[in-house]
Design goal:
Length: 327
């Protein structure tokens, strides 16, 4: 009889991660990388002790119920857990873990890349080159906006928000932030960051906004149409967190009307669908959810996930447990 822990992985992972999973556990991989259907997820949940999903798997109460009794751990490959019904899991006594920290720097780098790319019109410039439309330098052509001395408002000052602040400071941006809780004085001092208790007031005063908070019931459409309308028309908005923190249709309306200067987006409200009006705008730089897509981060995420599974298997509390109330 096989006594090894049964692990089901829902998507193809980097090879060293898959190899290690197979060495340590009775692992079922998904070499095709085709996302599992809802029924397939239910079936998988009923067949394993550990389910290893990703952001593309909707782990709702039905999937959790299907795993009742056998499923003990959902070891998410990724930091965000908004695709998992945490309450249902907690009621069923299932532990949830994620992979924080290891993707912080890469996600912050990509955020900084968008903070640069949108005001400096990088994607537009690249499109012009590819279309063979570069007719030579001109003193008034392709002028964007400098980012130095601009006010950056970070929404969500967790690990990634702080890493963005560190980078942005080096580029000469003034750091402002809104967070449920004020960060420590030591961190504020290190980042030169100014806390705004009221998000609306911060928005009206910023030049660039970076969304870095997790998606929870409280942050769904945090940047609603009303709030987005508070941003000054010269402002740029960057989102590398989760699409539904922003009302995407309202964002498209405001950009189309010129009520906002531009947006840099890596995440979307209804992935993989993207509001087509956003893609039609030169003022939008759109990326396909690639904040953590470096080979280094993805291997580190796998390693973190494996450590969580191993600790569970050995009877310890996995280090990266996600507690429902804190998300
Ligand atoms: C991950 C992310 O690649 O970790 C996250 O929350 O958004 C991505 O960078 C994805 O979640 C993998 O499941």
């Amino acid at each position: 009889m096989n006594t090894r822990t049964k692990v089901i992985v829902t998507r193809r992972l980097p090879e060293p991660v898959q190899d290690r999973l197979c060495t340590l556990f009775d692992t079922r991989l998904n070499l095709s990388d085709k996302a599992l259907s809802h029924d397939e997820l239910k079936k998988a949940a009923s067949q394993c002790q550990v389910l290893a999903p990703t952001v593309t798997d909707h782990i709702d109460a039905d999937v959790i119920e299907a795993g009742a009794g056998r499923l003990k751990l959902i070891a998410n490959f990724g930091a965000g857990v908004d695709h998992i019904d945490l309450d249902a899991a907690s009621r069923a006594g299932i532990t949830i873990t994620n992979t924080p920290s290891v993707l912080t720097n890469d996600t912050a780098d990509l955020t900084m890349a968008l903070i640069l790319a949108v005001p400096r019109r990088l994607a537009e410039g690249s499109r012009v080159m590819r279309a063979g439309e570069f007719a030579g330098w001109s003193p008034t052509w392709m002028m964007g906006h400098s980012i130095g001395d601009k006010k950056l408002g970070i929404v969500g000052m967790g690990r990634i928000g702080q890493a963005v602040a560190r980078r942005a400071r080096a580029f000469g941006l003034e750091i402002h932030y809104h967070n449920r809780n004020r960060v420590s004085a030591a961190i504020e001092e290190e980042l030169g960051a100014l806390w705004w208790s009221d998000l609306d007031t911060m928005l009206t005063n910023m030049d660039i906004i970076s969304v870095n908070c997790p998606k929870t019931n409280q942050t769904h459409h945090l940047l609603s149409r009303e709030r987005l309308s508070k941003l000054p028309p010269h402002a740029f908005l960057v989102n590398t967190s989760r699409g539904d923190v922003i009302d995407e249709a309202a964002l498209a309306d405001l950009l189309e009307q010129g009520a906002l200067a531009g947006a840099g987006l890596d995440v979307y409200e209804h992935e993989p669908q993207v509001e087509p009006r956003l893609l039609a705008l030169d003022s939008v730089v759109a990326l396909p959810h690639m904040g953590s897509s470096t080979i280094e981060a993805r291997i580190a995420m796998g390693e973190t996930m494996i450590i969580n599974i191993k600790e569970y298997e050995d009877g310890h509390k996995p280090p990266d447990r996600v507690i429902a109330e804190l998300t």
